[in-house]
Amino acid sequence: MFQQLKVLAILCILSCSSNYTYSKTFLVFGAKTGWIGQQIQHMLIKQGHKVLVAHSRLENRNDVIAELDQVKPDCIINAAGVTGRPNVDWCEDHKQETLRANMIGTLNLWDCAFNKNIHVINLGTGCVYEYDQQHPINSGIGFTEEEAPNFKGSFYSYTKGMIDRLVVNYPNVLNLRIRMPLADDLHPRNFITKIINYKKVVNIPNSMTILYDLLPLIPEMAERRLTGNLNFTNPGVISHNEILQLYKEYIDPQFTWVNFTLEEQAQILKAGRSNNELDTTRLLAEFPHVPHIKHSIIKLFERMKQQVKIN
Ligand SMILES: NC(=O)c1ccc[n+]([C@@H]2O[C@H](COP(=O)([O-])OP(=O)(O)OC[C@H]3O[C@@H](n4cnc5c(N)ncnc54)[C@H](OP(=O)(O)O)[C@@H]3O)[C@@H](O)[C@H]2O)c1
């Protein structure tokens, strides 16, 4: 069922693509094997763009330069990076590998592109903050793009937070801060799949990215040549329990789950996990139609239910 859901989910993302009258050449890093990179590749092809999958490793400067010279892309999408398997805990014990891709490699790509005046759209993360006194849970006060990361709980987030601060020095780079990506299929990397499979799950409201809504905006971001950091989530927050309740309602009526506290969760994890709300003012100024998370997630489960029925 998962494979069929995956194909149908990709088709759903493609079907909401806009009618672009221009076409660009995109070079996508992380599309050979990466979950999000492959979805971006398919979406760009559907929108009529020329897409090439990058072969060079981010940190190999000569290879990257040669590939840029050969492809001459209008825009580079960087969906490559070390994320850790089975999860980000892996990065705690593989710091050099994590730095090599997420900092040295990513900076290398931005720098090579800068020298050739090529726009880069980089997939970063919004998991660089945690709720604090100025941004309490459920306050509606989200972290803006200008605020410095305050989450130091995991090495993965640390590397992403460092690179996040360096974007300002590269006028050719847009860094998209994705969080807890939600897809229409039950791919293992989908946040929904992750939390339905946990033995115990925390229950905290968070900003999240519904890929169906957000990924199709990327070509227009390239067209506008946006730069800097951008909080790339749907407006609003949603909690783990709200998602699980919808999963139960739409997909599996027999589904049950058990909650536990953040303190209990910390005992089973090597690295901390970030919980936060991001401010989406900048995103909505550029794309006012991006739907609120609580509205959009209903549509997501309706689409998922349709696919489950078909299968
Ligand atoms: N999925 C999430 O929950 C999430 C949330 C927020 C942000 N993000 C960010 O979004 C991006 C894509 O995430 P994803 O879920 O699609 O990750 P993924 O499935 O783990 O894919 C990562 C891709 O990066 C490639 N890669 C790793 N190191 C590389 C290097 N040094 N040079 C070139 N390619 C390299 C991998 O290729 P190989 O297999 O060949 O190494 C793989 O294709 C990542 O930067 C991630 O940090 C993801």
Explain this structure.
This protein is of the alpha/beta class. The protein has one domain (2-310): NAD(P)-binding Rossmann-like Domain (Rossmann fold, 3-Layer(aba) Sandwich). It has helices at residues 2-15, 35-46, 61-71, 89-92, 95-115, 155-166, 191-197, 211-214, 218-223, 240-250, 262-268, 281-286, 293-310, and strands at residues 25-29, 50-53, 75-78, 119-125, 173-178, 228-231. It has a six-stranded parallel beta sheet, with helices on both faces. β4, α6 (155-166) and β5 (173-178) form a beta-alpha-beta unit. It is globular, with a radius of gyration of 19 Å. The protein starts with a helix and ends with a helix. Bound molecules: NADP nicotinamide-adenine-dinucleotide phosphate. NADP nicotinamide-adenine-dinucleotide phosphate binds next to α2, α5 and β4. Residues 29-30, 32-37, 57-59, 79-83, 101, 105, 123, 125, 178, 181, 189 line the site of NADP nicotinamide-adenine-dinucleotide phosphate. Belongs to the dTDP-4-dehydrorhamnose reductase family. One of its GO terms (cellular component) is methionine adenosyltransferase complex.
